[in-house]
Design brief:
Helix content: 10-25%
Distance between the termini: 60 Å
Order of helices and strands: EEEEEHHEHEEE
Number of helices: 3
Length: 186
């Protein structure tokens, strides 16, 4: 096929002229499966100590104790220093940094006040790094809202940053990447 314009002539190969079938999506196949239950940290109120425990599906994030309004998602990296907590904190900041939720302050939700905002957080962290994650530091990122639950699941990534800079605290050239989903409701 030849397309001629006043300035240019385009010749398209025959294989680009025929429509192609798009791949079929088969939802019966799971996209992700895990043999281990997720790690979860449930908190009753700010300041109480918590411990990492395996949870059953009913307490995974988000769960039924939350009337869900928003889901905010973010990604965080620690390219130098290999600190998964810093990566998780950046992921949470990324999730909440481009959002404004005035409904809680203005009373736009009948019968719900600002003090009733609840947060549930799910973090995708590489399995080998999960024991070094400091959940209390991660929780400090959130300026308001009662954090009901923090769930840590297998996810994220460990990859090469391409450079090992000892002056920046690097132990090696690894970059740690964490994903965050922040569920906001009441």
């Amino acid at each position: 096929m030849i397309l001629n314009t006043s300035f240019l002539t385009f010749k398209f190969p025959l294989n680009l002229q025929t429509p192609r079938k798009s791949p079929q999506f088969h939802p019966q196949f799971p996209l992700f499966t895990s043999s281990k239950p997720p790690i979860s940290m449930a908190t009753a109120s700010a300041g109480e100590s918590t411990s990492l425990t395996a949870t059953a599906a009913q307490s995974s994030v988000p769960n039924s104790s939350l009337t869900l309004l928003f889901v905010e998602m973010g990604v965080g990296y620690d390219q130098h220093g290999q600190d998964v907590t810093k990566a998780a904190m950046k992921a949470c900041r990324d999730a909440i940094s481009s959002n404004s939720i005035p409904a809680f302050r203005r009373g736009s939700i009948p019968g719900i006040s600002f003090d009733q905002m609840k947060l549930q957080i799910k973090l995708g962290v590489p399995r080998s790094l999960q024991p070094t994650l400091d959940i209390e530091k991660v929780k400090s990122v959130f300026p308001y809202g009662k954090i009901e639950n923090v769930e840590v699941v297998d996810g994220g990534l460990i990859c090469s940053s391409g450079v090992h800079v000892e002056e920046m605290g690097d132990k090696d050239d690894n970059c740690y990447i964490v994903n965050a989903a922040v569920y906001v409701g009441y």
